[in-house]
Each structure stands twice: as C-alpha cells, then as structure tokens.
TrEMBL record:
Poly(A) RNA polymerase mitochondrial-like central palm domain boundaries: 186-342
GO MF term list: metal ion binding; poly(A) RNA polymerase activity
GO terms under biological process: RNA 3'-end processing
UniProt entry tagged with the keyword Transferase: yes
Domain PAP-associated, chain residue ranges per copy: 446-480
Protein name as catalogued: Poly(A) RNA polymerase, mitochondrial
Region called Disordered, residue ranges: 595-634
Classification of source organism: Eukaryota, Metazoa, Ecdysozoa, Arthropoda, Hexapoda
Record key words, sorted: Magnesium, Metal-binding, Transferase
One Pfam family matching this protein: PAP_assoc
Cofactor(s) named in the record: Mn(2+); Mg(2+)
InterPro entries for the chain: MTPAP-like_central (IPR054708), NT_sf (IPR043519), PAP_assoc (IPR002058)
Keyword Nucleotidyltransferase: no
Length: 634
C-alpha cells in the first residue's frame, strides 16, 4: 500500500537563549556535528577559497546526493539503514515544505561517499503503478512503507541528521531577541549576517536544481552546462533567495577543433537573429521543463524582456528559479562580488545589514520597478569601501594590476566561457593568486563602517556625480539619470537606470534618518528593555514608507509665527537651542528693518492725529494724469 507522506505536525524549534550569542559569533571549526539548538551557525561545509573551487566542490556534492521525500524526520533511521546498502552516507539533512492543506512535505537529502553509490541508489528506484505519470528517472525520490520491522532493537545510524527543518528562516521575534542580547552594534551586524545568510543545506538544494537542468539536456547536448549566478553563489544570498541559472548548450564552443579529424557533425541551421534564436530555444526548454521534469511547475516564459528568461517553481526544493541563456556577464559579476567578499571579512556582514535596513524602510521591493535593487545597494556598499582614506576594498583597475603582477600558481585550465566585452574580466578573475594579493590596513569595526556608510551617502551629490567601481572614484554623470552607477563589466551601462528621482531623494532621507537613529538609540542611552542599535533601525516604526511629498504637504513652521508676539505666559518651546537663537536673530533683524523703513518713508500727508489721509484721485507731480483707487502700482 502506498502512502502520500504528509503530516500536520510541525517540528518546533527551541528558542535560543542569550547564552548562545557567543556560540553564534564564534562558529565551530571543522565538520562538527550540530544539534538543532545550534542552527543559527550558518557556515559552508566545504573549505573553499576561490570561486571556481567553490563551484566545483558544490557540483561534486550534488553529484553524490539524492533527495528523498519521507513522512517526517522520524523516518530517518529506517531510511538510513535502507540506503546504507548502496554505500556510505556521509551527511544527511532534513527540511520541510509547507503543504496546501494536506499537511507539510518532509524531505531528507542524503550525500553518499561517491557518485557511483548515489547512482546505484537512484537506479534501484521503481515507478509507481498507482500514481501514473511521465516515467523520467531523476534524483528526486520518495520512501514508501515497507514490511513491518522485526521486534528487535534497531541500531542507531552512524551519522545523525546535520539539520532538522533546515530551510526555515529565523522568525522576526527571535532575531530581535538575539540582536537585543548582543553586546554592541558590531556584534549585532555579525549575528544578523550569520543567522540570515544562505546556509549549507540551501546551497546544496540549489545545486541539485542545477544538476537536474544539466542532466535533462545532456542527452541531446553532451557539453551542456548550467552556470548558477547571483546571490545563490556570490556569498550575499539570504535564506529563501531565488536561483539564477545560465544554460550554455555547448560549453566547448570556444575551443579550436581538431584539425586531424576528418569527420564533422551535421548541425541544424540557426536563426541569423541571435535574440530570436535564444527566444525559440528558451521556449522549447520551457516545454521540456513543464512536461518531463519531476517537481517543476508554474513555468512562465518571459521572452520579450531585455534578457529573455524562463521562470519556474520547484515544489520539492521550494525554490523559485530563473533560467536564461548567453548572459555571460552575470557569471562574471557573481565572481567579482565573491572576490570582494573573500578579500575582507567585513564586506558581507556590512552588505547584509544595509540590505536588511533598505528592506525595512521600504527602499527595496521584490517586484521590478523604479526603486533601488539589492544589486544597486551592493554596488553602493562596494564603492563606499573603496573610497575610504584607508580602503577596505581596492578598485577593479587596481585588481587588474595586481593580477598582472601575480602570475597564476597553477596552469590547470578552467572550464569557463569567454565572450565579447567580458573577456578582460575573465583574464584577472581566473587568476587564483588575486585572492591573496590585497590586504586592507583599515581596522574600523563594523559599527564604525555602518555609521560612516550612512553619513557618506547622506552628503553624496547624486545630481552631478556617477559612481565607478572600476576607478574607485566618482565621475561626471554621462546622462541625467537621478542615480548613476557604472556597470563594472559593461561600462556604457547604468546599473541603477531604473531608479527615479523620488526614490533617489527617498534614499538620501533614509540614510540621514538612519544616522540619527543609531546615535539616539544606543545601548547606553536607553533602558535595558528598549530596542537599540539595529533593532531600532529595523523596528516596526521604520516599516512606514517615507516619501518626499510628506515634507511638502504641511509647513513645519509658518512665516507669520516668526513675527507674532508670543504671550509671556505661553512661550514657544524649541528643542534645539540653535534653532531658537536663529529665530530670535531673524526677529531682531526684521524689526530693525521695519523701523528704518518707517522712519525714512513719508508716503502721504499726515493729519494731526497721525493718520494718513486716503487718496481717491490726485494728479501725479509733474503730470496731468490722475491715479485711480483700483490702479495697480508697480
């Protein structure tokens, strides 16, 4: 009998006490086993250094893994003993996906010792006769009920679950509790980064999706390679982020052919318009995804966009995936951001904090529009770290110089694709020596860098200057875009071209407000129970979106109030002494001017009572013209 493995029982995560703060700040070394209480410690299991090493390590993990749907995490012991017959299980991770009403779906990711052992486990699977469908073999399986176990004590698995419910992001109340219990804003930024960044299981699941894409097309295109890019691989991804993939149907197209071979493949003629060809290929791939790949649903083809993409949802991975083709710049940009994050340990925590702040105040939005994107915010953080008196990051031109002076330590070829204007980026990014070529002399803490970031952009001249990460300085704006950030790889493009004037002014207002919040809500200034630091910066009061129109709908001070006499029993209260002195000076200067005008002017003939006789119609001096009452005087 077959069972649909869903359950309504949710595993409740134990709340983390304040004693775990130090454990979060100091992650464990080595591949130590972690209990569910230690789940906020998110770190990569692979000891990686370069971008290519990270990608190859993650691909190898996916090649040795299968994903099995189970009834709950309690099925792990039985699943472990069953799958141990195919090989050694190196690691296992549990997570769940929210159901539509029939309960939650539970999954366990198993990593074997080799790809051959994972293939043996996958090949042992069978197709269901009670649930007919397209008979496509894949790494996505489900564990059906077997015979009743014998009444004997079953041995415990050699390896316990590394994570239970491992894909659920931290709740807002729990995050605020951790941030409030921190000792300083510096610790708050570090905690925020470590408990919200994409964890090891999240990266594994994303590379399973990459493997599924490649294996589905490699039967017809043996050299097809899916290149993940964006936040999933550049080190700045948070829990629940989307996966961006570039599909290259022939990864060896740039290699010269063998001149000695006399056999040449017949090929299909392509459309002379490259854009039309990409659109037709993506449309066909979208059909393959929708009709044949297990777990893929909600396929949307957005082919008329500037960069044609196919969007779909993977129900087993609970993941949104964007698929495109021939967009090599996305891969190089991801590698550049990964390089920046590896050059200094403060880059990623600071970027996470700025992104979280922008989300809390309404600067960013998940849907495309005229607001600032996370990518533009990341560019702003990188430039800020470049322009400091003691730079935390070097400019891109400086990196190219350092790469030229540091020859590669190994001459092993790297399987990558080079095309067009991005070839110069490939030249220095593929050099492993670049990762150790720069060390910053800046010793500022994360708290100091965060405050300086807000202060810097509160005074930045967006109306005249453009930001260039290649030079590490500003240049005159090439056009009238409200915000101009030069694309590091394609320098003729503006990264923030979509941002309008209102959003640019809103950004400047919010950075000024952030400076005031950090100064006014320090840990020493408030009560122990009051929000402070990042909690006040991300608090619910900041969720209300501020717009520039708010500052023009009502005057902060009427001009008439400056000159009116204030009764002695009700004096005007000023919070800022400087404003009080300025208003008093304006009153004195204005009264002096009025007194001079009254003493020096003699407009009309005065009568004995000191009044001025009204003129109805009198001839002007030297002329015979009469001036009427309603005549406008210039």
């Amino acid at each position: 009998m077959l069972h649909i493995y869903r359950t309504t029982a949710r595993s409740k995560r134990a709340l983390i006490g304040y004693g775990h703060i130090r454990q979060i700040l100091v992650p464990p070394t080595g591949r130590q086993q972690r209990s569910p209480l230690c789940w906020p410690i998110r770190h990569c299991s692979a000891n990686v250094r370069t971008f290519d090493t990270m990608l190859s390590t993650r691909r190898a993990e996916a090649r040795k893994s299968i994903l099995v749907q189970v009834s709950s995490e309690r099925s792990y012991n039985e699943l472990y003993h069953y799958c141990s017959q195919f090989g050694t299980i190196q690691s296992s991770h549990h997570y769940r996906v929210d159901g539509d009403g029939d309960g939650d779906c539970h999954y366990i990711l198993l990593e074997f010792g080799s790809s051959a052992e994972a293939d043996a486990a996958m090949q042992s699977g069978v197709f269901s006769t009670e649930r007919p469908g397209v008979r496509a073999r894949s790494i996505f399986l489900w564990f059906r009920t077997g015979p009743k176990p014998k009444l004997i004590a079953q041995e415990e698995p050699n390896r316990s679950l590394a994570l239970i419910d491992g894909t659920q992001p931290i709740q807002e109340a729990e995050l605020n509790g951790l941030l409030t219990a921190a000792e300083s804003i510096d610790d708050q930024v570090t905690i925020l980064h470590r408990v919200t960044k994409l964890n090891d299981l999240g990266k594994r699941l994303r590379f399973l999706a990459v493997r599924q894409l490649e294996s589905s097309l490699q039967g017809m295109f043996p050299q097809a390679v899916a290149h993940p890019f964006g936040s999933s691989v550049n080190g700045y991804g948070r829990m629940g982020c989307d996966l961006d993939v570039i599909m290259d149907l022939d990864s060896r197209s740039g290699e010269p052919p063998d001149r000695n071979s006399r056999l040449v493949y017949h090929t299909k003629a392509t459309n002379p318009n490259e854009r039309t060809q990409v659109q037709r290929q993506l449309e066909s791939i979208g059909d393959v995804l929708q009709l044949f790949l297990p777990g893929v649903n909600s396929v949307r083809r957005i082919l008329k966009a500037r960069v044609p993409i196919v969007k779909y949802h993977h129900e087993h991975l609970d993941l949104e995936i964007d698929l495109t083709m021939n967009n090599t710049a996305g891969v190089y940009m991801s590698e550049l951001l990964y390089l920046f994050g590896q050059l200094d340990a403060r880059v990623r925590p600071l970027t996470f904090c700025v992104r979280r702040w922008a989300q809390s105040v309404g600067l960013t939005n998940q849907t495309p529009g005229y607001w600032i994107t996370n990518f533009s915010l990341t560019m702003l953080v990188m430039y800020f770290l470049q322009q400091l008196a003691r730079p935390v990051l070097p400019s891109i031109n400086r990196l190219i110089q350092l790469s030229a002076s540091c020859p590669p330590q190994s001459s092993a070829p790297v399987t990558r694709f080079v095309e067009g204007e991005t070839e110069w980026a490939y030249t220095f990014l593929k050099n492993p020596s670049i990762y150790g070529s720069f060390r910053s002399e800046n010793e500022a803490t994360l708290e100091q860098l965060l405050v300086q970031f807000f202060e810097f952009y509160s005074q930045f001249d967006f109306s005249q200057r453009a930001i260039s990460l290649n030079l590490g300085s500003t240049i005159l704006k090439p056009d009238h875009s409200p915000m101009y950030i030069v694309n590091p790889l394609e320098t003729v493009l503006n990264v923030s071209k979509n941002v309008n004037l209102e959003e640019t002014e809103l950004f400047r207002m919010q950075v000024r407000n952030a400076v005031w919040l950090l100064e006014a809500h320090g840990k020493e200034t408030g009560a122990p129970t009051e929000p402070w630091g990042l909690v006040s910066l991300f608090g619910p009061k900041q969720q209300e979106r501020i717009t520039p129109q708010m500052f023009f709908t009502k005057r902060l001070l009427n001009v008439k109030d400056i000159f009116d006499e204030v009764p002695a029993d009700a004096p005007t209260q000023y919070r800022n002494p400087a404003v009080k002195s300025q208003v008093a000076a304006i009153q004195r200067a204005t009264k002096a001017e009025l007194h001079k005008l009254g003493a020096g002017g003699g407009g009309g003939s005065s009568n004995r009572t000191g009044g001025v006789e009204p003129r109805t119609s009198s001839p002007m001096e030297g002329t015979g013209v009469k001036l009427k009452r309603n005549t406008k005087r210039r």
